[in-house]
Amino acid sequence: MNIGIPKESRPFEYRVGLSPAGVDMLIQSGHQVLLEHDAGVLTGFSDKEYEKVGARLVFSPEESFGRADFVLKVARPTEQELNWLRPGTIIAGFLHLASTQQERIDTLLEKKITSIAYEQIQAPDGSLPVLRPFSQIGGAMVAQIAARLLQNNWGGRGILMGGVPGVPPAEVVVLGAGMVGTYATQMFLGMGAHVTVIDQSLAALQRIWDRFPGIITKLSTKRNIENSVLYADVVVGAVLSPGHRAPILVTRQMVRSMKPRSVIMDVSIDEGGCVETSRPTTHEHPVYIEENVLHYCVPNIPGAVARTATHAFVNAAMPYILDIANKGAEGAIATNPDVAFAVNTHAGKMQHLSHLTAGKEK
Fold first, then answer.
1. Reported confidence tier of residue 354, pLDDT bands at 50, 70, 90
2. DSSP alpha helices (H): ranges in 150-178?
3. What percent of the chain has pLDDT over 70?
4. Which domains does the chain have, with CATH numbers?
5. Would you name the residues annotated as active-site residues?
6. Taking the CB of residue 263, how many other CB atoms lie within 10 A of it?
7. pLDDT at site 245
8. Are 235 and 262 in contact (CB under 8 A)?
9. Strand, helix or coil for residue 55
10. Alpha carbon distance 325, 78 (integer Å)
């Protein structure tokens, strides 16, 4: 199988679809890898490192997409990238198609592209093994970024996350007790913050309370969220519904009730966001102010630590990538239920994806 690794084209996306070690594994399995020139340079991987393990360089994105049977990306493909794909191609990446434009879905269906969303690969125990490392990294980074945003020079309230003797620490509210919420909680507690975690699952709250007995836990209800954001210095949205748009948990009225110059970090923004006032931002311009509250809504937070993120991702994703490459789309879908659950479009039909035309067949 010809496997294409294009250079990511979205602004401030520093990651790459596969490391040299992953390419080596594919080539050892008998596949050909077509790497776009400098695809890994921002991650710290040179073309020579890829060539050393047998990758073939191509010098245009059209080639890396158009000559491939299986395209490995990180971020969701752009409209132009979708146009470069040949009909019947397989594409894998963190696609988040539930929050994309309907026209992109239509293109995938019309070209009968098999699109596999890494964030939806699901193990028998319900865990999301490929999403996990990025969730861990994103959760850990949330705390260090929030600490900076609370500083006056970033427009924040001028609060030290852990406080000092005689001055209380920051109040942090985390919406979601999953992987992002757990790692964010761990980091916030390590910095000395006072943390409240809200989730709809009592089992999830039990797990995170057992791990961090000093936190406050609340069941996710409108009233609990309303009351919690009132006292929060930082609100972290860490909600995920695989294949669906994130639900709006924090309304504009709730944001309006928050302390002036407090901080919202909507980590769910790549799934549409769980705060009504959220809109995507970039690493270059990560923050905006709405209702006198700072909003940080960067979709690709782990992209800022691209080397760590790529190595962690490859460790988790490689078994699935090899399975798809060795068996093809039909074989992998038929024999690997973890992969089958992550298929968003296949043979002109939508699967495991809640969108405007859910159930529509072409």
1. low
2. none
3. 97
4. 2-121+307-350 (3.40.50.720), 131-299 (3.40.50.720)
5. 96, 270
6. 29
7. 86
8. yes
9. coil
10. 23
**When comparing pLDDT for 350 and 235, which is higher?**
235
Provide the b/e sequence for 116-146 (b: ≥16 CB within 10 Å): bbbbbbbeeeeebbbbbbbbbbbbbbbbebb
Alpha helices, H only, the chain: 20-28, 47-52, 61-66, 79-84, 102-110, 131-149, 179-190, 202-211, 222-231, 252-256, 306-335, 337-340
Q: Does residue 164 surpass a pLDDT of 50?
A: yes
Average pLDDT over residues 56-70: 96
Burial of 78 (0-12, 13-18, 19+ CB in 10 A): middle
228 three-state secondary structure: helix
Residues 103 and 90 sit within 8 Å (Cβ to Cβ): no
Residue 359 C-beta-side C-alpha neighbours within 13 Å: 0
Residues 156 and 163 sit within 8 Å (Cβ to Cβ): no
Average pLDDT, the chain: 93
Q: Distance (Å, rounded) from C-alpha 174 to C-alpha 185?
A: 7
pLDDT at 74: 94
